[in-house]
Specification:
Oligomer: single chain
Number of strands: 0
Strand content: under 5%
Radius of gyration: 44 Å
Helix content: over 70%
Distance between the termini: 145 Å
Largest sheet: none
């Protein structure tokens, strides 16, 4: 082989090596960029999820409060009905006792 051919081969190999190095560096930078973007996406998704959780928690608490108020109102109405019935029965019982005492 001639010296020129050896120099051409060496130059070609050196060029291929440099191309490989540039490709590797470019690939590493692309991977790093993908990681940065991915972390940003993860952080954004996490922030959205936390906001959604906060919203759902507030909505759930509000609904629970409304249901508790409705239950308290229903319970108060039932209590009033039971108290009125108990007072009528108490009057009936007192009248029955008086009748038995008077009739005996």
């Amino acid at each position: 082989m001639s010296l020129e051919m050896l120099q051409t081969i060496c130059a070609a190999e050196e060029g291929a090596l440099q191309a490989k190095l540039r490709a590797r560096k470019s690939a590493e930078e692309a991977v790093e960029e993908a990681h940065r973007v991915g972390k940003g996406d993860v952080a954004a998704t996490l922030a959205r999820a936390e906001a959604e959780i906060a919203h759902l928690t507030r909505a759930s608490n509000q609904k629970a409060m409304e249901e508790a108020k409705e239950l308290a109102s229903t319970t108060a109405n039932r209590l009033a009905t039971l108290q009125a019935r108990a007072e009528r029965r108490l009057d009936d019982a007192a009248q029955l006792i008086v009748e038995r005492i008077v009739n005996d």
